[in-house]
Structure formats: structure tokens, C-alpha cells
Amino acid sequence: EAREAYVARNPASLAAHVEAAASLPGGNTRTVLFHGPFPLLMARGKGCRLWDADGHGYVDLLGEYTAGLYGHSHPVIRAALDRALDRGWNMGGHGAMEARLARLVCARFPSVELVRFTNSGTEANLMAIATAVAATGRRKVMVFDGAYHGGVLYFGGGGSTVNVPHDWVVAPYNDAAGAAALIEEHAEDLACVLVEPMLGSGGCIPAEPTFLQALRDAADRAGAVLVFDEVMTSRMSAGGQQARLGIAPDMTTLGKYIGGGMSFGAFGGKRALMELYDPRRPDALPHAGTFNNNVLTMHAGVAGLEEVFTAEAADRLFNRGEALRARLDAAAAERGAPVRWTGLGSLMAPHFVRGPVRRPADVADDDPRLRELLFLDMLGRGFYLAKRGMVALSLEVGAAERDGFAAAFADWLDARGRLLA
Ligand code: PMP
């Protein structure tokens, strides 16, 4: 019934989907955006709002899976892009903004002494792994169940057939003793331990500080490179989640908002590791990429960090998210509804379970149909979430929109209580 209402409401999106399917598999070039019966065609965005091809307006709570931190058409980002466009954008040379963006990143993340840019978080993680393998001369790479480090680096539900071939060791998330034991077991062959400080795609499940500290200690004992994938969590403070926890990895990967909403990724860390890429060295490791220093990203990234996403703005956003998640959780608790919102700061996700959520196994029985129902019903109420229910607040989502969403969620619990029970 929710699907029927959706089909009836969105004829222009349906037509666009049918046409797109002629030349894109399933009409899609980005798997995460597909959902049944067909996804919306987005026509326009402004501030925290989006409009689809059929003219419906939404409060954008997806925030481009966290890359949309600045909201839509932010005037500061737009001005930076205009400046870049005025000067040309395919110059095949160094531009003024890349060193400036690198300086900003290194200043914010003290564990990142040197950094290199990529075009995506996926590439950043591929490069971090390659760096660790080259630096240690070892082959094994530890990742965690439920992790997502990119389309070819996915470890939910037993992994993916398109994953890059590495000698993977998949360890249990948020199990300090179990993971430390595995690190010790593979110590001689282990190049790196790659971990998200919060499982993002895996359901916004934060790492416990003791877990990350145990990884830090065990990696040190094993001589393995500890890599924090902060592609999603870098927004938790100016210096990411590592600054909030006071745990310094050897390498960090970044992406999403740091490029001001343009294509972006970065990997960086200890000087001794990153110097392997210094092209002045006769034995330098190669890291090419036509768009690594693309002018639009560099300009937008600098403007965003210098003028908009200050340390104070980061802390404010974090607190707004914590308050919203508490309200959503309270709405479910007051009604005895089996829904738990997990997350950190401005990122949160619902789980249709009753018990506490610490590990991917705790949400394994989560009903995907309820998730889809929440998604479709919220579209009907004017809120655009990730299809899996995740919310990533942008800086533009105001108090009125947060109040509105909390009220809409409470109303949804009442309306759908029978299905949830
Ligand atoms: N790591 C994490 C934690 C992510 O959430 C993502 C993207 N959602 C990536 C890596 C991959 O980034 P990209 O989509 O830019 O390749």
C-alpha cells in the first residue's frame, strides 16, 4: 500500500527510471541509490531542501550520505566554485589550492603529517592498504564484520564477490579481546588493521573506545599499520572521531564533505609512511590520478573548511545530532516500540530490534521491510532519508526541520504501531 501510493505520486520519476534503464543497468550507476519500486529523480536542491521531478519538496536528511555537509548550493561553496571556473579547470599542473587544502587537513588531524588526495573514499582506502603492504612487506589485511570501505571493500553479510583480492582477515567489530587475539595470531603477516570508528553503512554502530584502544595496542605489538577510515566520522569534530577519543592511528582515510561536496578522498598519516610517495625518491611508490588535485574540489574544500565548518560549527552539529537521536529514541521508548536509533553526533540509523545494539550481529534480524516502510512513509511526510533509514544532518537542517522530523517519526510510530508490534 505504501508502494502503491509512491507509484501514484511519482509519475515523472517513474518515466525517468524507465528511460534510464535503456542505457544504465536498472537505470542506476550508484547501487546505494536504488530502491523499489523505482528511485526518485531529484531536480533541485537549496539549503536543506530537495525537490523531485514531480515537484514534491523534501527536507533532505540524507545529506548525500554525509558528503552534503554544507547543504545545497551553499553561497560560500558556490563562490569558491565560481572562482575556480573563472580561471579554468583542466590545467594539467599544480594549483594553488591543493597545498592549502592539505595544510588544513594536516592541521585538523595531527596524526596526518602528510596527505595525498584521491577522488573517492574507496580509492583512499585502497591506497592506505597499498601503503601498509608496501611499508611492512606483509600481505594480510584485517577488516571487521559489517564494515564498508568502498564498493570493492565491503564486509557486511560475509563480504562481496566484487571485493578486491587481498589476504583478508575479518575480525569481530567491538570485540576488543577477540580482535586483539586475531591480531596476535596473524602478527607476522599482518600489514594493517583497517577500521571505521563507527560502522557507517553497517548501521551507525559506534566503536567503543576500549575496542579502538585495544586495536591501537595490539597493532603496535604486531608492528601493523593501524588505519582509521574516517570517511564518514571525520565530521564528528574538526579533527574527526580520533580527536574526540584521543586515539591516534598511523594512517587515516578521508572523503565526503572535506571536498566541499565535490568528488573527494584522501589518505594520510605518519611522515615515514607517506614519504614513500615522495617522487624525489628514486624508489618512490607511484600514486597518480588525473583528478587527484581537481580544481573544483580543491577550491570548494578549502572554502568549506576555512569559512564554514569551523571547530565550533563541528561541535554544534555534533550536539544537534545527539539531541535529535535522543528524541527519536525516546519517542520509540515511550511507546514501547521495537526501534533503536544508534549513531554518533549528526549521523544516526534506526534498527527494528528491542535489545541494545553494539555489534552487527545485534541487528542481523532487523526486518528490511520495516526499514523500507519507514523510508517510503517519510517520503510521504516530506522527509528524505537514506533508504536504509540513516540520517546525516547537514549544517543547513534547522531546529524547525529537526522538530518536524521528530514529530513525524512519533506520528509514524503511532500510525504503524500495529506492524511494529
Ligand atoms: N569508507 C566509508 C566509511 C564510507 O562510508 C564510504 C562511503 N559511504 C567509503 C569509505 C567510500 O567512499 P566513496 O563512496 O567516496 O568511494
Automatic annotation (TrEMBL):
Keyword Lipoprotein: no
Nucleus found in the keyword field: no
Cofactor: pyridoxal 5'-phosphate
Residues annotated as transmembrane: none
Pfam families found in the cross-reference section: Aminotran_3
Family matches, as InterPro entries: Aminotrans_3, PyrdxlP-dep_Trfase, PyrdxlP-dep_Trfase_major, PyrdxlP-dep_Trfase_small
Keywords: Pyridoxal phosphate
Family the UniProt entry places it in: Belongs to the class-III pyridoxal-phosphate-dependent aminotransferase family.
Protein name: Glutamate-1-semialdehyde 2,1-aminomutase
Source species of the chain: Craurococcus roseus
Organism taxonomic ancestry: Bacteria, Pseudomonadati, Pseudomonadota, Alphaproteobacteria, Acetobacterales
